[in-house]
Amino acid sequence: MNRIRLLFQALWFAITNGYVRGFIEGKIYQGETKKLCVPGLNCYSCPGARFACPIGSLQAVLDSGQYKLSLYALGFMAAFGVLLGRFVCGWLCPFGLVQDLLHRIPVGKMKKKKNLPGHRYLIYLKYLILALFVVILPMTVTNFMGMGDPWFCKYICPSGTLMAGFPMLLMNEPLRAAVGILFSWKTFILLLVAVLSIGFYRPFCKYLCPLGAFYGFFNKFAFYRFNVDEEKCIRCGKCQAVCGMDIKTWEAPNSMECIRCGDCKAACPTDAITSSLEKLIRDVKARGSSADGEKI
Amino acid sequence: MNSKKRAGSFIRYIVLAVSLIMIFVGTRTGEIMTVFQKAAYICLECIGIG
Prior knowledge:
The structure holds two protein chains of two kinds. By secondary structure, chain A is mainly alpha-helical. Helices cover 56% and strands 2% of the residues of chain A. Chain A has helices at residues 2-16, 20-25, 54-62, 71-84, 87-92, 94-103, 119-122, 125-140, 151-155, 158-171, 173-177, 181-199, 203-208, 210-216, 238-242, 263-267, 276-295; strands at 226-228, 273-275. A two-stranded antiparallel sheet of chain A has the order 1-2. The longest helix of chain A has 20 residues, at 276-295. Chain A is globular and about 70 Å long. Chain A starts with a helix and ends with a helix. The model of chain A has no long low-confidence stretch (mean pLDDT 95). Helix content of chain B is 78%, strand content 0%. Chain B is elongated, with a radius of gyration of 18 Å. The N and C termini of chain B lie far apart (55 Å). The model of chain B has no long low-confidence stretch (mean pLDDT 92). At the A-B interface, helix 3, helix 4, helix 10 and helix 12 of A face helix 1, helix 2 and helix 3 of B.
């Protein structure tokens, strides 16, 4: 399951960040698809990006001083959320892929852990970041023209630093000359997240990502959900043991923290956990075979 | 199908419809161009310059 997911993540990354010319020339893509948001945290200033980042787009509209609300970006985010929930985090986010790869780095005799100390409180930090850095500060801290800053992108987002900052600076001499304290701060955050990702599972997704926080609200009623068959479940706890997000799947299959990686489904000894997609396919097959039976 | 499941199913479709309407309205009000202008040029804040 892990290998399939990794391949899928890599393929999705190649599709959404496949503007090779950007990496060669140090320029960014300016085609029509840049008007559309992708589901994951994918910086639009990455030289390969063919689409727009939903969190960046939301802040761009809010801090422009022209709109009180971004119906466009929120519409994309709500549509992805209701269709997929945090499946986006597990399968479609480039920075999720980066963290997954970092977590594969061996650490010798040290034991890898799932959570940081204070996990039960730290998980709420991402909701604070969503409210404060993505919505409130860009809208309220404005200059004389009524324009603000994209606070999350500017002061926190390590995905932008890694996928846009470093490639753009490497390929552009004038940009390198403008590097200052802000870049050092953002590099520090990136390094901190990267180092933590080696020892702990997806710390950015768990504690900091405002997009994951937003999609989490949809997990309970999204089209893509998990279901636990109470009759089959023996409460052995194997699902939680393999879950990087440390979720008691048998109690909360649609937890706001679940990134839908599917490791719990693969580990379940009684096949008690199914996704809504699998259920749909099974129902369609059953309907097809019963229709065939009626014909005979 | 019990009432809880039916309500969940109803909410899903409503949210999807509303989100598509929001995208459409955002396109008509010009938000789409604000997004494009930000996305099609280097965002200095995003890369940590300014």
